[in-house]
TrEMBL record:
Transmembrane regions: none
Annotated family: Belongs to the EPSP synthase family. MurA subfamily.
Domain Enolpyruvate transferase span(s) in chain numbering: 6-407
Protein name listed in UniProt: UDP-N-acetylglucosamine 1-carboxyvinyltransferase
Reactions this protein catalyses: phosphoenolpyruvate + UDP-N-acetyl-alpha-D-glucosamine = UDP-N-acetyl-3-O-(1-carboxyvinyl)-alpha-D-glucosamine + phosphate
Active-site annotation: C118
NCBIfam families noted in UniProt: murA, PRK09369.1
Keywords noted in UniProt: Cell cycle, Cell division, Cell shape, Cell wall biogenesis/degradation, Cytoplasm, Peptidoglycan synthesis, Pyruvate, Transferase
InterPro entries attached to this UniProt entry: Enolpyruvate_Tfrase_dom, Enolpyruvate_Tfrase_sf, MurA_subfamily, RNA3'P_cycl/enolpyr_Trfase_a/b, UDP_GlcNAc_COvinyl_MurA
UniProt: phosphoenolpyruvate binding residues: K22, N23
Annotated source species: Candidatus Clostridium eludens
Pathway(s) of this molecule: Cell wall biogenesis; peptidoglycan biosynthesis
Amino acid sequence: MSKIVVRGGNKLHGEVNISAAKNSVLPIIAACILSGGKCVIEQVPMLEDVFVISNILKSISAGVNIDKDTNKISIDTSNIDYCDPCSELVKKMRASFLIMGPMISRFGEFKLSLPGGCNIGSRPIDLHLKGFAALGAKVNVEHGFVEAKAKKLIGNRIYLDFPSVGATENIMMAAVTAQGETIIENAAEEPEIKDLANFLNSMGANITGAGSRAIHIIGVKELKGSTHRPICDRIESGTFMVAAAITRSKIRINGVNEEYLKPIIAKLTEAGVYIKCDGNSLIVDGDRDLNPIDIKTMPYPGFPTDMQSQITGLLCTVRGTSIITETIFENRFMHAGEMKRMGANIKIDGRSAVIEGVDKLTGAEVKATDLRAGAALILCGLVAEGETEVGDVYHIDRGYVDIEKKLKVLGADIKRINE
């Protein structure tokens, strides 16, 4: 088991380059199933989740070549003949369900073990399955497996009860070869949805409206291979913005899209952080007195739930009372208990956290309870007095490329210890 050890107190300086978005790359890899040929994905972040979904494709006879030197993945799905993907791999990661849409689109059926993932609350896949059923599939869930079959998918008007990112992506991928027109209403608007649609369109799909509440899809007969470079990771960008704020430092963050970061920029600016856009870079200056703020997580373009843990860590260091309300996942305050071990003053009341800023945090042995919580604990360690040991860092490795190396370049006293 590995752990990340941080000794707090160092100011950060310099610049950091942001990787491509994991939440774009995973559905794009799954979408390669649709091509029946060769696809190339460039600037891929070499993360554990990327390796898992790549291995899932290998388990259904896809040819996958990962070039870590060039951060490029080549995927040939011409030899896939429908079969069950490896259940042990599927159970490792919730994003495994993203192969459902491509499988039923190309083969008219799929059978998949119910997927796993971070323990941050209930994340049912009923919206995905209702979407497939609306397109004409017969869906069955039993004995830990979900199975669907369709002789032919027919376009339909589908209204999502909640703007689920995964459901929007899965239904969009299923509908690209469905006969006629499909309209997904109350669709998720995240930038990663638009990125996936751009990739599908480059393969020959006919999708308009991605990134809005209504996505229109005209079914085509088949898709072809393509090459694509995913968008930047707005959550990694936000994490380093908070790193500058929590250490009261000034850094430059390269490879970002200001538009995708507006909700994070707005709240950090409200807290008193100075942020300036400079082309594809942000200059973030937290070296000033910061103010407590209230935040409610919401689907995009609201404040992202994936930044809630990190902003909680920051507000623990800001004098006054802040309140964070979590509306997406009911179990996403597990990091609060770990932060309390470091001296944070956090009280959980249902879906809200009341945070009283403290004069200092103290280093402690803590565990990453999920991906974003792990990053937040590292951020707290950057300013904690003494040494912080963050365990269960396999969670962190699912979503951040060399986070300790990037922070070290910025001047943090941080290292990874493999035991």
